[in-house]
Amino acid sequence: MTGRFAPTPSGRMHLGNAYAMLGAWLVERARGGRADGDGDARGGRMLLRIEDIDEPRVMAGADRWIMDDLDWLGLDWSAEEGVSPLWQTGRQAIYEEAFDLLRQAGLVYPCFCSRADIRAASAPQEGDGFVVYPGTCRRLIDDDPSAVRERLAAGDRHSWRLRMPEGHDPSGNTANGSTGSIVTFDDMIYGPQRFDLARDVGDTVIRRSDGIFSYQLVVVVDDLLTGVDDIVRGRDLLRSTALQIHLRDLLAGLGFGGDGARETADGAPSPRHPGYAHLPLIDNAAGVRLAKRTRSLDLGYLRSRGVAAEQVVGYCAALLGLPVRGGFADDVTTPEDPRFRPVPLTAAEALDLFSWESLRGNLTDRKLPSDNPFLNE
């Protein structure tokens, strides 16, 4: 089995990144047993991918910070030439190949809409505010393809969108995959998931108007070609998972990589679909999702203030629902309690405690009790 770390080098990693990466590492290392007597973790294959496809957002040196912080936390990965660590920049020809297959199959179309156009024509979905593209340019190319050709010839700015299939499948198939407009998968934490691509996702940009390939395309290509079959990330990407499963099916059906999967460095082909585990999100004390601009919780700042790696691992393990002891009194049992101080753990020690069972019983997003629970004594 193969998992991956896939950070974006747009700044220093924060506590939420460490939490997700610890979860990914634990899943993969648990595949092959627990830590041995020397504290070295055994288990599945773990890759590191630096997701720097969006070059305007990349911060110089952030990739090195990421690797240094992972090493500090004790989260190791496989070193494989050309596979891990892997930088997305320099792989444009591979993404272009996948995009060309989709375009030649008539599965993408140019979109001239601005964000303001889309907001004006769409209503956000209840709950998360996600806006489904209303299909303006899809109708344009279907109804008046000559007008589209004229706009392209004139150099009008445009992105490229992936057509979502129409129609509903009443079968309720529960195996990972897509049937018509319906995608289903069984998440290791949130359980069975079912999305209607036309209704819940909509036609999605896979190449931006500045020519940069979207996250949705490149992550599918990279996971497929490097043999990733375990993916751990935040629950905010559940909807994206449905899209990526569908896109993976399309590329496999078009023969991308050879029979739907290219061999990895160790000769193991990527599976048709990975397994997925989506984690509750981490909010700060104000109830706002953690971001890299939250300076007080970035790992560089914590390290500069003398916070030990074992403190971070122990706290993240508690947030993941592992049975980590801590607190100033017997009634302090959750990391959301301001009095909670988890017992410091190494990554190998966290592995010995690992299970998703407790997390499955509490799917609410985590809220930190203070802006910096490590320094709030």
In percent terms, what proportion of residues is strand?
Answer: 5-15%
Order of helices and strands: EHEHEHEHHHEEEEHEHEHEEHHHHE
Q: How many domains?
A: 2
- What's the level 1 CATH class of the largest domain? Alpha Beta
Query: How would the global form be characterised?
Result: elongated
Characterize the main sheet. Answer: 3 strands, parallel
Cα(first) to Cα(last) distance is 41 Å
Task: Report the oligomer.
Answer: single chain
Structural category: alpha/beta
CATH architecture of the largest domain: 3-Layer(aba) Sandwich
CATH superfamily of the largest domain: HUPs
Give the strand tally: 13
What is the tally of helical segments? 13
Would you tell me which CATH topology of the largest domain applies? Rossmann fold
Strand order of the main beta sheet, please?
1-2-3
Q: How much helix, percentage-wise, in residues?
A: 25-40%
The pLDDT mean sits at 86
Q: Name the poorly predicted regions.
A: 33-41, 168-175, 259-270
Give a structural overview.
Residues 3-249 form the Glutamyl/glutaminyl-tRNA synthetase class Ib catalytic domain. Belongs to the class-I aminoacyl-tRNA synthetase family. Keywords: Aminoacyl-tRNA synthetase, ATP-binding, Ligase, Nucleotide-binding, Protein biosynthesis. This is Glutamyl-Q tRNA(Asp) synthetase. InterPro entries: aa-tRNA-synth_I_CS, Glu/Gln-tRNA-synth_Ib_cat-dom, GluQ/Sye, Rossmann-like_a/b/a_fold. With 377 residues, the chain is α/β, with parallel strands linked by helices. It has 2 domains: 2-87 and 283-367, Rossmann fold (3-Layer(aba) Sandwich), CATH 3.40.50.620; 92-230 and 239-278, 3-Layer(aba) Sandwich (Rossmann fold), CATH 3.40.50. It is built from 13 helices and 13 strands. It has helices spanning 15-30, 62-73, 92-104, 115-121, 136-143, 145-153, 197-201, 215-226, 238-253, 299-304, 309-319, 347-353, 357-360; strands spanning 2-5, 45-50, 86-87, 108-111, 159-162, 177-179, 182-187, 191-196, 204-207, 230-234, 275-279, 282-283, 366-367. The protein has a 3-stranded parallel sheet with strand order 1-2-3, covered by helices on one side. A 3-stranded antiparallel sheet has the order 4-5-9. Strands 6-7-8 form a 3-stranded antiparallel sheet. Helix 1 packs across helix 11. Residues 33-41, 168-175 and 259-270 have low confidence and may be disordered.
